Amino acid sequence: MEFNPINAIVHNEGCDLHYWYQGKGPLITFIPGGNGHGRQFNNIMAALADRFTCVTFDRRQMSASQVKVNKRLSPPQQARDIRAIIQALGFDKSIIFGSSSGGIFAFQFAHDFPEMVDRLISHEAGLATLLPDASEVIEWFLHLLEVYETRGLEQVASEFEAKLIGYDDEGIPKTVPPEPENPRNFWDNEFPVLVGYTPNLWRLKENKISVGVMRGVRCKDAFFARAVDEQAKILECPSMVVPGHHQGFEVETKEFLPYFLEMLDTLEKKKTSV
């Protein structure tokens, strides 16, 4: 389907959240990660709009969703922002898809508002504290913060992006870049919180959330891909290796889509069997 969304704004806790939606049917909410902008989901939304209502948004303090004074990231507030958008569209619940830190916020949403989750797919949520080599990865995170504070945005972005495996693979289209202010907000206000933050996945399991996790085949042994395996162990949930890199849903949408739909079907069967 041609991408032709409706744009809207909902005000929540001091922020005008800019969101856009298209389609008809059950709601899928697409949650951006550290790059902050929802445009990365436009391709998959267009592909699904004939059977789902699809919505995405620019997260708080990112792209169009600005505030007067930027503040430190609050994952529970991010979850409340997601709730505000779902409610603004007139839905009681939604299928949730989050990637990278968007996957972390998806888990947070399911923790805080389990009754609003239809099914949840988390794609490469980088929960480093779950890894067997968590100490090493966390120390690298702390090193990155020091690099940012002492050597600046360009240097820390270079070191971090070196871990984003697969983006330079031959024939792979480039992703849509975020607005220039987004990386600054990420390193100033989000990364320091995300370094050691892990939502209570055991509570999701206890609440019988219908959840599945995904890792991209191009990401190989990147920390955020390996973290998916640990999430699957804790949640005892379906896990998939899917086409693409960390944003494969954006640039290899055609290849990614069958896996996405298969996961939704798997989670629907799991939900009805409980």
From TrEMBL:
Domain AB hydrolase-1, residue spans: 26-163
Q: InterPro entries attached here? A: AB_hydrolase_1, AB_hydrolase_fold, AB_hydrolase_sf
Drop me one GO molecular function for this one: hydrolase activity
Q: Which GO terms describe its cellular component?
A: membrane
For this UniProt record, the keywords arranged alphabetically read as follows: Hydrolase
* Domain of life the protein comes from: Eukaryota
User: What Pfam families does the record point to?
Assistant: Abhydrolase_1
Q: What is the protein named?
A: Alpha/Beta hydrolase protein
Q: Which organism is it from?
A: Achaetomium macrosporum
